[in-house]
Amino acid sequence: MVLSDRTIQEELDKGRIRINPLDPSCIQPASVDLHLDNKVLLFRNSQQPYIDIREPQEDLMQPMEIAGDVPFILHPGEFVLASTLEFIEVPDDIVARLDGKSSLGRMGLIIHSTAGYVDPGWKGNLTLELTNVARLPITLYYGMKIGQISFLRLTTPAQRLYGSPGLGSKYQGQQRPTPSRFYEENSG
């Protein structure tokens, strides 16, 4: 069952769901608006002929910051990693979904390729997988509304929360856009 604005507020008041910072006006009927942080990871123009998913890729991306009111330009076909401004915590009996804002989607901005699922026990800023599928560049600004998070109650609390030993959780506690750590699954 998707949580309504009333239930989201109750869970926030109890401290079970945490969103920091939170502007109360960002609570929508069944979601909460999230904002773009100023940290971005860009793919470098690399001499590598391909990305080997079994190897760490430390030199594949370079960090950048969106400065004040100066826009970051996302070009057609470009893919970058960014982050939500908000730090999110999800309790053991709730799962969250990250989705884009429809107004931005109508311009060709996709905010996640596959990482729209937020497991019970998650703590951290969410990494966004931004892609421009339009034929024109799109401006992105620090602090702009970039997506929305909705919450669903589980049938029972999860036994093993995200970050539990043995689960292989690779991104717990992240506070900036984090590149893929898929190689950790395939090493050894």
Description:
The protein contains three helices and eleven strands; from the N terminus they run αββββββαβββββα. The model has no long low-confidence stretch (mean pLDDT 91). The strands form two sheets. Strands 1, 2, 3, 5, 6, 7, 8, 9 and 11 form a nine-stranded antiparallel beta sheet that branches. A two-stranded antiparallel sheet has the order 4-10. By secondary structure, it is mainly β. The protein has helices spanning 5-14, 102-105, 183-186, and strands spanning 18-20, 32-43, 61-65, 72-74, 79-89, 94-100, 109-110, 117-118, 123-132, 138-140, 145-153. 10% of the residues lie in helices and 36% in strands. The longest helix is centred in the N-terminal third of the chain and has 10 residues, at 5-14.
Describe the secondary-structure layout:
Blueprint: H1 5-14, E1 18-20, E2 32-43, E3 61-65, E4 72-74, E5 79-89, E6 94-100, H2 102-105, E7 109-110, E8 117-118, E9 123-132, E10 138-140, E11 145-153, H3 183-186
Antiparallel strand pairs: 1-5, 2-3, 2-5, 2-11, 4-10, 5-9, 6-8, 6-11, 7-9
